[in-house]
Amino acid sequence: MLVEEIDHALRPPVHERRVPSSGMILGPKSDPATWAGGTQLDITRQPLDEQPLPAARRFADGLSSWLLRRTDGTTEWLVFDRPAGSERDLVVLAGVLDATIVQRNPAGSVRVVGSFGVLRWKGLSWHHEPPVSSWIDAVAADQAHGDPNVLEAMLEFAVHDLGSLGIGSLLVYRPNDEPGPPVEERLPTPLSLQIRRAAHLAPLRHALTQVDGAAVFDAQGVLRRLGVRLVPSNAAEETVEAFGGTRHTSGRRYSHDDPLATVIAVSEDGPVSVLRDGAVLGRSYGGD
């Protein structure tokens, strides 16, 4: 069933030079009563009855409308109250439904998502992005550095919303309300977007594509500053070596000056680095 759906996503039917997007949820094992709350979606379910699968595929866009196939041969519709087709949406869906997801998005990218992480088709080969949970322990082991749930949400956003789309960014998570190191604020106070609210992530991602500098979040994961320039101390410049490009170096040196903060640097070519107290805690595979 999985091979069949991957084959369909890679070789979709073409109608008048248009290649449709598609989305399939395979073999969910969790209780359907938990789906709406876990995904923060209103979900309408409807059995396919006698409609053949090839005909039903035409209505599944892999964003708001999906087909769900079970190993016992039953198939049904899932329709969401909002589009949920970003890579992070797919990770959440796969986790809450305990399912494997195959999607071809409108841009033509094919992803397979499940407990193993994310597989992205790169045109000639597959790229594997392991689950964020496989390296979150090293980032959230010490409670002094903030809420592990907020840190995990920020990492998932960085890897699956920013890194997968090549959106270079700096995210700074400060676990307390004490004044931090000096920064240069160049933009007005932003909307109070919450990193753990799925509906807030699309506008946050859209804003980050249009600004340079860092986005600063408070202990609850609420965006407080946007587009700030991180200004390292003389000590940081003298003791903390450069790391990657300008974005990563400034993030690493800022983390030296604000040792309880966690800085997440996202490269334009995909990899995500986690920086704290001047050190590199971890890095996603990202990129090619």
Number of alpha- plus pi-helical segments = 9
Low-confidence stretches: none
Helicity range of the residues? 25-40%
Strand count, sense and barrel status of the largest sheet are: 8 strands, mixed
Q: Which percent band covers the strand fraction?
A: 25-35%
Q: Which class do the helix and strand fractions yield? A: alpha+beta
User: At CATH's second level, what is the architecture of the largest domain?
Assistant: 3-Layer(aba) Sandwich
Using DSSP, what is the number of strands? 15
Order of helices and strands, N to C?
A: HEHEHEEHEEEEHHEEHEEHHEEE
Here the CATH topology of the largest domain equals YojJ-like (1
Q: Tell me, what's the shape?
A: elongated
CATH homologous superfamily heading of the largest domain = DNA integrity scanning protein, DisA, N-terminal domain
Distance between the termini: 28 Å
* Rounded average pLDDT: 90
What is the level 1 CATH name of the largest domain?
Answer: Alpha Beta
- The neighbouring-strand order within the major sheet is 2-4-3-1-5-6-7-8
Radius of gyration, taken over Cα atoms and rounded to an integer in Å: 20 Å
Structural domain count: 2
Write up what this structure looks like.
The chain has helices at residues 2-10, 35-39, 53-56, 87-97, 136-140, 148-162, 198-208, 234-239, 246-257; strands at residues 22-26, 43-47, 65-69, 75-80, 100-104, 110-114, 117-121, 126-129, 169-173, 183-184, 214-217, 223-230, 262-266, 272-276, 279-283. The chain has an eight-stranded mixed sheet, sandwiched between helices. The protein has a seven-stranded mixed sheet with strand order 10-12-11-9-13-14-15, sandwiched between helices. The two termini are 28 Å apart. The chain is of the alpha+beta class. It is 27% helix and 26% strand. The chain is built from nine helices and 15 strands. It folds into two domains: 2-129, YojJ-like (1 (3-Layer(aba) Sandwich), CATH 3.40.1700; 134-283, DNA integrity scanning protein, DisA, N-terminal domain (YojJ-like (1).
